[in-house]
Design brief:
By secondary structure, this protein is α/β, with parallel strands linked by helices. It folds into two domains: 170 residues, no CATH class; 238 residues, 3-Layer(aba) Sandwich (Rossmann fold). The protein is 41% helix and 11% strand. α5 packs parallel to α7. The radius of gyration is 32 Å and the shape is elongated. The N terminus is likely disordered.
Length: 473
């Protein structure tokens, strides 16, 4: 398709200005909230300290706004005509930083196309108004609090629910403030606000109640299946399986290996298959990100748990690391690999970490599966793991180390060709069962003897053949 045929988004012509306005309104609202909180902590509100309208029961003012019994308060009244003095820079900078962070949250940027998720400015404004209500007890602040809550419900009902829950937790803490209005004044302001803004909120809820009457409530099964629990942050239920998220480490190493475990229902210390792919965890699922690939489904049906790591510089791990560079390694790579692991070696190390984790789970067998260049990682890890790995199946797709032409190639492994390439790695798999598919027709290590435990095939592996090679016979 030609570029001219693609639809183009023109923010200022297509209503995108409203979309982009949300983050900056949110920044302004957070700025006001933090600035007001810092001003209150310093002993003066945004309205100029102990003014007649403050209603604070301090030593320098009466509860009714009149003069108190003593004038020894350290809070100085503002000069005439400066009812809203400009806060000092010491309180503005933290507020500005807080507003910027709130506007540019990763969650907000990720959901930039969702209008209702951008309009969150009412939340800090509601907290700001509640703070002023508790501090001064004025009716107009109570009405503002209710109005901002209503506006958040109208903008995004999810955020509205979160906001109400937050305010319910925060309000009792505000009552512990040293300087605040009377409980009667606070209650009066909030009740008036609820009376003014309650009817529109009830009208807004009417369609939801009507749909509830027609469609009914969620079943107990749906509530139990889809509601969040503490375990939801580390595992997600699927159809006959569960997906567990983890970050693998090893003693004495700074390496961190993000991984997911896809575990069939009822699995009890059975087979663990470490699935390796250059795409990392993404390769275990269909494009929808929810449905396991046919190969993974077969493994689950065969009673195996599948562990899929994002090894060094793949998948999620690609965002938290980079290849080590040293001075002049572009002219002589020995300056680098003579002292540091290559990318290939780092990935092999991460595969060994995944194998060790699979064994820690109590698996009676650990198997390896790899495709393409990931198959070479599997063979290298298989050679180092000894009898811990029971079965290995790789489809190299014609790869061998003679295809590495650049020192920056991720598959560079010093000495690999000298010792027979892929066949040299395969010759070390003397225990268990190893099946190699898709070996290059002209192998650089054709002189290397192949152990009886290794089966070498030049043809590419079908999905069934690859899985059959690692499942128990």
């Amino acid at each position: 398709m030609a570029d001219d045929a693609l639809p183009r988004i023109r923010p200022w012509r297509d209503g995108g200005a409203i979309l982009l306005l949300g983050p900056w309104l949110s920044a302004l609202a957070m700025y006001l909230l933090v600035r007001d909180l810092l001003a209150g902590r310093a002993g003066t509100g945004m309205m100029g300290g102990a003014s007649r309208e403050s209603g604070i029961g301090s030593r320098g003012s009466g509860l009714d706004g009149g003069p108190g019994p003593a004038a020894d308060s350290e809070i100085e009244a503002p000069e005439p005509g400066t009812r809203n003095p400009v806060p000092d820079a010491g309180r503005c900078w933290p507020a500005l930083i807080a507003g910027t962070i709130f506007a540019l949250l990763p969650y907000r940027v990720e959901h930039l196309m969702h209008l209702e998720l951008q309009w969150s400015q009412w939340m800090p404004l509601a907290c700001w108004a509640l703070h002023r209500t508790v501090q001064r007890g004025r009716i107009r602040d109570g009405v503002l609090t209710a109005a901002f809550v209503l506006a958040q419900f109208l903008s995004c009902i999810y955020y509205g629910i979160f906001l109400v829950m937050t305010l319910a937790l925060v309000a009792p803490l505000l009552l512990l403030a040293r300087e605040r209005a009377t409980l009667a004044g606070i209650a009066r302001a909030l009740v008036v606000g609820a009376v003014v803004c309650g009817p529109p909120l009830l009208m807004y809820a009417a369609p939801y109640r009507a749909n509830q009457q027609v469609l009914g409530n969620r079943t107990a099964h749906d509530i139990e299946r889809w509601s969040a629990t503490p375990g939801s942050f580390v595992s997600v239920p699927g159809d006959g399986f569960a997906v567990h998220q983890s970050v693998l480490t090893r003693a004495g190493s700074p390496a961190r290996v993000p991984a997911i475990g896809i575990v069939p229902a009822g699995w009890k210390a059975g087979l663990v298959v470490v699935w390796l792919d250059e795409r990392g965890k993404e390769a275990a699922f269909a494009p929808d990100g929810r449905t396991p690939t046919p190969e993974v489904k077969r493994l689950l049906a065969g009673g195996a748990a599948v562990l899929v790591p994002d090894v060094f510089l793949t998948g999620e791990a690609g965002a938290i690391g980079s290849r080590i560079r040293v001075k002049n390694d572009d002219t002589y790579f020995g300056y680098n690999t003579g002292y540091n692991r290559s990318v290939f070696a780092e990935r092999t190390s991460d595969v060994l970490t995944a194998i060790a984790f699979g064994k820690q789970l109590g698996a009676h067998d650990v198997a390896l599966v790899g495709r393409g260049r990931a198959g070479a990682w599997a063979l290298a890890a298989r050679a180092l793991a000894g009898d811990v790995v029971a079965r290995t199946a790789v489809d190299l797709g014609g790869f061998d180390f003679d295809q590495v032409r650049e020192t920056t190639d991720d598959a560079l492994l010093s000495g690999a060709l000298k010792y027979g390439g892929v066949r040299g790695l395969a010759s070390l798999a003397t225990t268990g069962r190893t099946t190699i598919f898709g070996l290059a027709p002209a192998q650089p290590g054709s002189w290397v003897p192949t152990p009886s435990s290794v089966t070498v095939l030049a043809t590419a592996a079908t999905a069934d053949a690859l899985i059959d090679a690692v499942l128990p016979r």
